[in-house]
Amino acid sequence: MNDYLTIALPKGRLAEETVNLLDSHRIINKESINFKSRKLIFEDTKGKVRFLMIRNMDVPTYVEHGACDLGVVGKDILLELNPELYEFKDLGFGYCRLCVAAKRGGSNSYAHDMRVATKFVNITKDFFASRGVLVETVKLYGSIEIAPLLGLSDFIVDLVSTGETLKKNGLEEVETILESTARLVANKNLSKSKSERIKNIINVLDE
């Protein structure tokens, strides 16, 4: 199994788009993967590629520590976690924005010691510090939009695609912090043979 290339994929749309991309370039055969299954590991025996389906926040950890050779993860997560990885390629899909949002019709002014709900704690602190504002962060992993409505926070920092979820929960965008797309990342201690395989994959994708 050491000749297999192991790739960590975030469950959901990014995994499906990555598999479709690799399949379209004949790097793998996507028939070996069943996205409706509860399995977490799939193998393409012909292409000698193994896929791990894991949480997006865990992808950098699996790759950084050598459990996986490659991974696909959003730029937002790379900036939040700052892992020791090679970032090889912007895959061009999975676009989203990391935004500051607040209650519609409320005050959009920043102030010291205000509370901001987010799972992107490091990015959030750095962003507000760049505005000269020290904030208290409240770390949440889901349903972040309701935090201002219940008085848990003054603002939220969260990923936005269309903005419809914000609108439906009485929030509005205040400012965009960054834009993100899916990136192909790799472990820094790859064997020579795997480094060559990855170079070949990147060359094929670039074509």
From TrEMBL:
Keywords: Amino-acid biosynthesis, ATP-binding, Cytoplasm, Glycosyltransferase, Histidine biosynthesis, Nucleotide-binding, Transferase. The keyword RNA-binding does not apply. The gene is hisG. NCBIfam families: hisG. Catalyzes the condensation of ATP and 5-phosphoribose 1-diphosphate to form N'-(5'-phosphoribosyl)-ATP (PR-ATP). Has a crucial role in the pathway because the rate of histidine biosynthesis seems to be controlled primarily by regulation of HisG enzymatic activity. It catalyses: 1-(5-phospho-beta-D-ribosyl)-ATP + diphosphate = 5-phospho-alpha-D-ribose 1-diphosphate + ATP. The lineage of its organism: Bacteria, Pseudomonadati, Deferribacterota, Deferribacteres, Deferribacterales. One of its GO terms (molecular function) is ATP binding. Lacks the C-terminal regulatory region which is replaced by HisZ. One of its GO terms (biological process) is L-histidine biosynthetic process. One of its GO terms (cellular component) is cytoplasm. Its EC number is 2.4.2.17. This is ATP phosphoribosyltransferase. The keyword Amino-acid biosynthesis applies.
